Amino acid sequence: MWGLMPGPMLFIERPEFVWGLISSFYTANLVSLILMLAMIPFFAWALRMPFTVLCAVVFVLCIVGGYAPNGRMIDVWLILIFGVLGFLLRKADYPLAPMVLALVLGPIMERSFRQTLIAEQGNVLAFVERPLSGAFMALALLFFALPAIRALRRRSGGEGVAPAE
Predict the structure, then answer these.
(1) pTM above 0.70, yes or no
(2) Which among 94, 114, 136, 158 has most CB atoms closer than 10 A?
(3) Do 56 and 80 fall within a single domain?
(4) How would you write the chain as a 3-class SS string?
């Protein structure tokens, strides 16, 4: 971009650009600090707002924020569907950390999945035929179903581990 070659030589070849960029970072941080300090009363007011009002404001902002970039209703429907899905997962005690990990590692796993299918000429059973991959697949299915199994055991009155507080 702008015909610049990134790297340590940039400090020697274009010092005015580098130091201008660094000073703009400092300026942006200073302006952000001033704005945040000025907005503290607003944030305190927002924290005193009743939860139902705050929830409605957040909901409207999410819907508008989903619709505004592309102007398509499908984006709003996706927000609503994934919101309901997230609510159901929260009610079923599915932990959040594995979901975030899956979102981060998902593209890498998808690429490896495609490579394996190409190497195995489309044979999907390659993921369960070998003992190690079959064991990992079984463990993944067990860990995925575990929160639902615990919820069913609690509901039916069976012995179970009490949820951590």
Answers:
(1) no
(2) 94
(3) yes
(4) CCCCCCCCCHHHHCHHHHHHHHHHHHHHHHHHHHHHHHHHHHHHHHHHCCHHHHHHHHHHHHHHHHHCCCCCHHHHHHHHHHHHHHHHHHHCCCCHHHHHHHHHHHHHHHHHHHHHHHHCCCCCCHHHHCHHHHHHHHHHHHHHHHHHHHHHHHHCCCCCCCCCC
